[in-house]
Design a protein that fits this description.
6 copies of one chain form a homohexamer. Chain A has 251 residues and is of the alpha/beta class. Chain A has 11 helices and 8 strands. In chain A, helix 4 (102-110) crosses helix 5 and helix 6 (160-178) crosses helix 8 (196-203). Chain A is globular and about 55 Å long. Chains A, B, C, D, E, F: This is Hydrogenase expression protein HupH.
């Protein structure tokens, strides 16, 4: 199967660049089941990183264009490569192939590992947004906490030792003070640091790499012949009434 | 005080046109407290009407640009003129003046009128989205039901008698079968038909005009010197760190 | 419009006296929209202050008599002047004009300012009662905490500096430890100290003056031609069946 | 042990009269464990029956006076003889002996009989009030429904066959449509008709006589040496601070 | 009435032995209402104590055999003598006499004593299980906390002074930090130490002896002629279809 | 990887027999990703089918023995082959390899397909049990309904056309009346009829084969190097304290 991992912003033009995209593509292909081919594709219009509701809103229209093109190009599923799952509902309206978001995928996987989950996020200002995503995934009851590390997305890879240390320290608070049984990396750059095993060993609870979780979720759906429900994410009414996709976009 | 009612799409270019914008502006000014001046402003980039998550996503970036301009131009508050409250959180991040959404305003007002509320919406496909907005407003526990009338936004004004009849019929089901104590018009075009009194008389429960509710909410906040909390809707981190607004927008 | 602010106890005879009533009336009229006239009216039978369920129960029958008289005297709305909203449901059964309670009004307004709210109350023993009121308002999900200042109602005005200091200290705990985005003054005497701006500046989150919030809520309802739903707060069955109001009161 | 069953209104002066009080006293003593003596005492000030929030508010102050007198007179516990549990919280503040309410007692007993419960109430207008009591008891999650029979309290005993028939018909809807596993009689006059076994046989689910449930609850607490928590229902602050009970009552 | 207190394991063969069983039987009979006779019966197949889901699962089949035999032998009700209520649902399927579990009985009784409850349990690893039982009882909303004392079941009686001290210390944290109004002993051996009064005096909140609570619950049900609902706990379908009990047990 | 699918009862000795076990094994291997080998293993002690809490309790001890043996024999994960997930928590306490239950796996997968889910179960008497499992999985908020088909487990394969018809009829009610976006087959024999595509086409919403879902869940966990959290499912305390497994089992 062919899976598109769509980065909702122009990563190839930004500080991480094409090299990081290729590194992530290699990791995803290494994590995949035999027979899966993953392509990492970025979106040319959008912010350098997504750390606010505004930046999230900015990236959605162009990201959905890319996801629609992926479906036309024969991909079997798409992953939205940001832990805020930007545009997940809108993308599902316009596709029939599965579209998954790493936050939803990780939360639902983590829910099977224990009673209470915690998310390691970037900033305090993103805690409420993560709580909303837990509600949308249906597992808010299992959310023990969302704790911020305070390291901006674009700085996570600059000092990996400091990042590792801060992640372990924050994760330990989730386990000890919030009774978390499992941990989520609440940012794709965190996940692609591939520190889940180290963090898990350090704090005594499983930690979920969101890139792996989204990939396995997509592979599971394709393998089972399933996709999101069109009663939940219906094609927009104007299109159901026979108008073209273009008619949706402008008055 | 000066309040901007921002229509998140190019209404002046669409089927309703400038005339309908002016009619709504006149109504809003008639509903306002003495001393309030309301301007209706549309957004030149966006869909003709918003009936899906995709159309909602499409309108947000340009709508926020207009709201930010309104703040710079000295408006005291802005109303996002769509019952899906598109971009409410993102707009609040970038402003200090109050920005209100008619859905949130109506839900919180309705919550003071009785134990259970129902929303009259456009299509079945919009029920789940309205339920999510009730959760975000904090009053999901009071939501009795969301029921669709099945009349597309752009057709609501074409046959007013049929629209009135369908609204009353649907509202009656909310009261009788779902135990609703109060009703919300879940679309601004419904609200600007100004049928709240007729529907209310017909079904024996108060009905809330969302345009009025958002206006009163904005007037209340300005009058009290209040605005949304910046701990809840903080300025994006890059700007707090000293980067310009433009730096947010592109990689 | 004419609004009655009904103090549910004999304030004019108590330690605060007629002077304080007049001061509050002046403040309310200063806060009102143009065209609103507010009268502060106390109830001659009842406790000196309300700090328990028992004192609340004591004040209700006579308070409702006054509210009913206000409606007969042509007032457009009534505010029950105590943050416990004593008798709110019963008063709504017997009136058609809007009757609002400052706690409900403040909670629903605060719900539009952020994700999580905290109430500053008088005693630890009043925390559970405030939580129940948040449930009744429908916004318990948004309640971050209720924290007591420990200063009795009748002492709040004796040492304003100490009161201000204690309010700021308690509010800061709500923001830092409980993640509150907005604060409520959980007592009318606290609100009429008019310290919202000072507390808000000190802790970095909006604080809501409950007197203002109730006033704006009443003005909004009257201005919109709305009142509480009679399906939610119906006239007592004996009266609906044709018996007189007097027949309700004695066997 | 001696238990006071306090009717919160002047039953001896009303249509049911002293004879009905004596009949209820005999039933309660017949239901009691060996060694328990129950006295039925009415309250001379209050409404003929309680079918609204207003009538409930009316009865509370005098009812609490009677309950306090009962404690001084050596009773071991009191039952508030109305299914709305009027004044339960206030009475607990002023007593150390157990005070129980039939609604709370019945709900907590019913919660041990199955997954879902239904309450048979008097009027549609009382449904929301019963739901609030289920929330206060802590078992709202188990409430399947509250259904009204439509027979006023004072008419329940006039045509017992019709009452029985209506109760069975309503209970059957609770079991079949709402999946109730157990039924509560939501009015003391219903309970003292002593129809639990008949209704239960007819619909195939246990039905709880609220008079028996409250009695057993009181006997249990006295027998175990338990009473309500004074952290939950503390003595009013003015009394804790050394003022007399009388000081609470007037300004 | 005759009540069987069934210990779900071979206590007579274990470290506590027959002497402890007889001591518990004497206590239960001393706590009972006049006319109640309690027999303590252990189950010959099962673990020495129950501190995990696995040990709980181990004891259930044989415990249900004993409970069924008790019903055939003319007992009026059975108590499952472990605070995890092992096998409660299964036992109710196979009996018509009441079967009660001390955890459910205690939680529902405690719910009538205050707003928030805490359970004192054995190990941290048992917290999530206790939370699940609170959900099943329907009162999770009232659960303030579950705190572990860290003393294994079989060690509780070895050093009673240390146990008392640890219980008081843990209970005090529940009251002060978690706002508990009432406390539950989350283990039968804790309850049979009969320390409720001491703990209650020390921390200022009622503490519930789970053995007493289960006994009173059973006595209440028998006295009222009630038992669990057979719609909630139906006889297994194969038996309803006419097969024998033995046919259930093997393929 | 090697996965054990453990049937919690003696299927090879029962009416379905070894042939059906082999058919299921072939299906599971056909559904698996390349490189996965699935073995179907039954448990020699237990009921013929599981349709009650009692039958569930009966099968658990022997099923856990088999799962523990599987781990010793080098399997990488185990699936408990019953939709009630019997013994899931206990098995996780005693293993470090992943143990999954088809109900939990299906619920969490379905939660990613839409807003509301429905489970097709065997008997009305199993509805409450399925609701409890949805609570344990953390997704009760998404459960639209559990509806019974009324066909006993052992009859499902006798008349496949009738089973298919009944499943489609029941699924259609879930979609139309309960607003389900996705459907679960609430019994493994239902799932192994492999009718998901037919049911899905007939009702217009995805249907989840629980056997496939559990398999993909197990493959995902093994592939990611994850297993259940040992803080959530700790080894029993006696073993942590150094006693042998055998010491757990008898007094």
């Amino acid at each position: 199967m062919r899976i598109a991992y769509v980065v909702p912003g122009p990563m190839s033009k930004g500080p991480m660049g094409l090299k990081e995209m290729k590194r992530r593509e290699a990791l995803l292909n290494a994590w995949a089941f035999a027979g899966t081919e993953v392509s990492v594709i970025d979106v040319m219009d959008g912010p350098a990183s997504i750390e606010s509701a505004y930046e999230e809103a900015l990236c959605i229209p162009a990201t959905i264009d890319v996801i629609m093109r992926c479906e036309r190009d024969g991909f079997d599923a798409a992953i939205i490569g940001c832990f805020g799952d930007p545009g997940l509902e809108a993308a599902r309206e316009l596709t029939t192939m599965p579209v998954v978001g790493p936050c939803e995928s990780s939360l639902l996987l983590a829910a099977s590992l224990g009673h209470k989950l915690s998310v390691l996020t970037i900033f305090e200002s993103m805690v409420a947004g993560q709580e909303l995503l837990a509600y949308r995934a249906g597992v808010l009851e299992k959310l023990a906490s969302v704790r911020a590390t305070g390291i901006p997305v674009l700085d996570l890879m600059k000092n990996p030792d400091q990042t590792r240390e801060k992640l372990i320290e924050t994760a330990a608070l989730c386990v000890k003070q919030d009774r978390a049984d499992a941990l989520l990396f609440g940012c794709m750059t965190m996940s692609f640091l591939d520190l889940a095993d180290e963090v898990s060993s350090a704090v005594g609870a499983p930690a979920i790499n969101a890139g792996k979780a989204a990939l396995k979720h997509a592979e599971t759906l394709v393998s089972m012949g399933l996709s999101h429900s069109k009663t939940a994410y219906p094609m927009p009414a104007k299109m159901r009434a026979g108008q073209s996709f273009e008619a949706l976009r402008v008055a």
